[in-house]
């Protein structure tokens, strides 16, 4: 194998660690799996637990996602809902009920309901 026939690569180094960190962060920020129309083309987008902010992995079969419907002033469902995801860890600890109650109380204040 002749080394002169191989393509040449240029190594670009950044003198400051801070600058390379910003460069990497900007690159990751712009890296998205979208088509030309702006639609997301990812096959799997992991969820986060609403109570603990942990990632819910594909193997967490004890996790649940709950939609809570919004009501109007007369108590009739208006077609809107809030979604909460709870990981299996929270459910196994027995904290799902209190966590969901805390999350819904916070959401009710945001919705003024």
Textual characterization of the structure:
- It is built from three helices and four strands.
- The chain has 113 residues and is α+β, with helices and mostly antiparallel strands.
- It is extended.
Task: Please outline what is shown here.
By secondary structure, the protein is of the alpha+beta class. It has helices spanning 17-30, 88-93, 96-111, and strands at residues 47-48, 55-56, 64-71, 77-86.
First-last Cα distance = 73 Å
Shape: extended
CATH fold category name? Hypothetical Cytosolic Protein, Chain: A
Total strand count, please? 4
Helical residues, percent: 25-40%
Specify Rg, calculated over alpha carbons: 23 Å
Order of helices and strands: HEEEEHH
The major sheet is characterized as: 2 strands, antiparallel
Protein name: 40S ribosomal protein S21-2
GO cellular component, one term: nucleus
Pfam families: Ribosomal_S21e (PF01249)
Family: Belongs to the eukaryotic ribosomal protein eS21 family.
Question: Topology, please?
Answer:
Blueprint: H1 17-30, E1 47-48, E2 55-56, E3 64-71, E4 77-86, H2 88-93, H3 96-111
Antiparallel strand pairs: 1-2, 3-4
What are the main properties of this structure?
extended; alpha+beta; Hypothetical Cytosolic Protein, Chain: A; single chain; 113 residues; two-stranded antiparallel sheet; 4 strands; 19% strand; 3 helices
């Amino acid at each position: 194998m002749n080394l002169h026939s191989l393509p040449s690569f240029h190594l670009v180094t950044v003198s400051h660690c801070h600058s390379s960190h910003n460069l990497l962060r900007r690159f990751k920020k712009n890296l998205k799996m979208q088509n030309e129309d702006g639609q997301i083309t990812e096959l799997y987008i992991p969820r986060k637990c609403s109570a603990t902010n942990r990632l819910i992995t594909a193997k967490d079969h004890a996790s649940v996602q709950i939609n809570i419907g919004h009501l109007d002033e007369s108590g009739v469902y208006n077609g809107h809902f809030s979604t909460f995801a709870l990981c299996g860890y929270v459910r196994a600890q027995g904290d799902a009920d209190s966590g969901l109650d805390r999350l819904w109380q916070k959401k009710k204040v945001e919705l003024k309901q």
